[in-house]
Design brief:
single chain, alpha/beta, 10% strand, globular
Length: 206
């Protein structure tokens, strides 16, 4: 009896995870990937089992007791996004509320609260936490059955609806393609190094 999935979610508190015990569905939700709409479309039966660990208040009984043998019976999915585009989207959302440095280059390069990384190199927020954490364990083993892409949201959510009976579908907006204008002075190379694994695993490029 193993608890690899449980331990991964508990030790990566930014890995937001929703579960429907009725439909046997697990959704790992990276920030800025249409997650709010997808969660809503899954219906009222989903529960955010990772929440107590993120806020460091209590535990979740489902997550504490679930075994990997039981996890295998669930349909597990996530949606990912181009790291360059996702980072700009997250920064703009937080900068507009005065939560982070309002200069994108400074946000990326400098360290500490209000920036991409803390002084020790750890990520300061789940909205820019690398997406491979929502798909793989630390040893590289994949635990996800379906990876949809934000850039292909309509087609991939249609596919999802064919696999998850409770999924009601979402309204898809146009994709913002202006992110490249924020990358100047070789900043894209710094970001590419930070998100190297995401770029390789999901086939993205600048």
């Amino acid at each position: 009896m193993s608890h690899k999935f449980r331990n991964h979610i508990k030790s990566n508190i930014y890995t937001t995870t929703f579960v429907s015990e009725i439909d046997k569905v697990i959704y790992t939700r990276p920030g800025r990937t249409a997650g709010t709409a997808i969660t809503r479309a899954l219906g009222k039966e989903v529960e955010e089992v990772s929440r107590p660990y993120f806020f460091k208040k209590g535990t979740d009984s489902w997550l504490e007791n679930i075994t990997d043998e039981e996890i295998d019976k669930y349909f597990k999915f996530t949606f990912v996004r181009n790291p360059f585009s996702r980072l700009v989207s997250a920064w703009r959302a937080f900068a507009s509320r005065g939560k982070v440095n309002k200069n994108f280059e400074s946000f990326v390069i400098e360290r500490g609260v209000g920036h991409l990384l803390y002084e020790n190199g750890e990520f300061t927020n789940d909205h820019w936490f690398p997406q491979f954490n929502y798909v793989q364990y630390s040893d590289g083993q994949n635990f996800i059955d379906f990876v949809g892409k934000f850039e292909n949201l309509k087609n991939d959510t249609d596919k999802l609806a064919g696999k998850v009976t409770s999924f009601s579908g979402i309204n898809v907006r146009g994709i913002d393609t202006t992110y490249k204008e924020y990358y100047k002075n070789g900043l894209e190379n710094i970001v590419a190094n930070i998100y190297k694994k995401d770029l390789e695993l999901f086939g993205y490029e600048f």
